[in-house]
Design a protein that fits this description.
about 110 residues; two-stranded antiparallel sheet; 6 strands
């Protein structure tokens, strides 16, 4: 089920004309790896919102409906990523966390 949800989100993101600065790098079982143009904060926030929207698919099971939790991590490389919980923060707080991360970290070359 997780793979189906992730693959559906991947195809929606790929087909979307709303994500001009987002590049899908890979899909690994239960995750999407994306790259985003540096310095396009408004587009980054929009991209995160859309991908979370694509991943938050209601799934019916035995008379109940649930959504698989979505985890967001950002960083300039895999070794230095920071997790952001959409459940614990509003979008303004997430944007603040991303702004702070970018200010205190340097992109690797």
């Amino acid at each position: 089920t997780v793979v189906q949800v992730v693959n559906t989100a991947m195809w929606k993101a790929y087909d979307s004309k709303l994500l001009p600065y987002l590049y899908l790098i890979g899909q690994v079982h239960d995750s999407l790896l994306c790259q985003h143009t540096y310095g396009k904060m408004d587009s980054l926030m929009h991209s995160i919102r859309k991908i979370v929207e694509y991943l938050d698919i209601p799934i019916p099971c035995n008379g109940r409906v649930f959504v698989i939790p979505t985890e967001i991590k950002i960083g300039f490389d895999w070794g230095n990523m920071v997790g952001i919980s959409k459940g614990d923060y509003g979008w303004d707080k997430i944007r603040g966390l991303i702004d702070e991360y970018i200010k205190t970290n340097k992109p690797t070359k």
